[in-house]
Amino acid sequence: MKKITPFLWFDTQAEEAMNFYVSIFKNSKILGVTPGPNGTVMMATFQLNGQEFYALNGGPEFIFTEAISFFVDCETQQEVDDLWEKLSEGGEKGRCGWLKDKFGLSWQIIPSALGELMSDNDPAKANRVMQAMLQMDKIDIEGLRRTYEGV
Question: Is the pTM here over 0.90, yes or no?
Fold first, then answer.
């Protein structure tokens, strides 16, 4: 098996979505576009931070649901803040680091610190972090750390 590549079905916005995503993520690029009728795009391929994606203009038969989301592991609060604002523009901000972009695709913008703090051997600390995260929309690393320390 070579690799697994996400394949995104759009009504008519494949090219717009590809350009939007490539403009947001570092180390991203457009790989190719397959023309459709009347100068439209039928299919597009692109990379986001090295991960390849396909996008298809397949019509209105299918829409995105929260059953599928893209988990973005962020190192810093600045990265969380930037992705949260850019990806949610025209979409919906949710709870616990989840958002929907303007195309209806769900994303989880999660700092790696969350997993580190929640995997602590002290169940009281891990539980405090979990309870704090459940109250957040965008994840706040410093807020998690203060909760972890019991401050």
Answer: yes
